Amino acid sequence: MNLLTGFKTLNSLKIEDIQLDHFEIEVGEMNYGLEINGILGFDFMRIAGIIIDTEMLEIHKK
Q1: Would you write out the chain's pLDDT as a tens digit for each of its 62 residues?
Q2: For the chain, which has fewer Cβ within 10 Å, the N-terminal or C-terminal residue?
Q3: Positive or negative, the Cα torsion across 44, 15, 32, 58?
Q4: Taking the mean position of all CA atoms in its chain, how far away is CA 7?
Q5: What string of DSSP letters covers 33-59?
């Protein structure tokens, strides 16, 4: 199994009204048997001040 991974710093990462500038991401192969466009990691959530509403399946900023 050949998994290619690497790190890249994005000028900005924006999800809805939440934006972080100069944010480092890890780029790699994901094969979990279902279609995934990406995984939002805890680093992003912590820095952005995100609250996860598990009942409504939504995220909100503090």
Answers
A1: 446 678 999 999 998 888 999 999 888 887 788 888 778 889 989 999 999 999 999 888 88
A2: N
A3: positive
A4: 13
A5: SS--S----HHHHHHHTEEEETTTTEE
- What residues form DSSP beta bridges with 19? 14
The two three-digit tokens of residue 41, written as one number: 């990691």
| Predicted pLDDT of residue 60 | 85
CA proximity to 15, closest of 55, 43, 48: 48
Structure tokens of 8? 């890249």
Burial code (b: 16+ CB inside 10 Å, e: under 16) for 41-57 equals eeebeeebebeeeeeee
Q: What share of the chain is helix, strand, coil (3-state, %, to 5)?
A: 10, 50, 40
Phi and psi at 45, nearest 5°, equal -60, -40
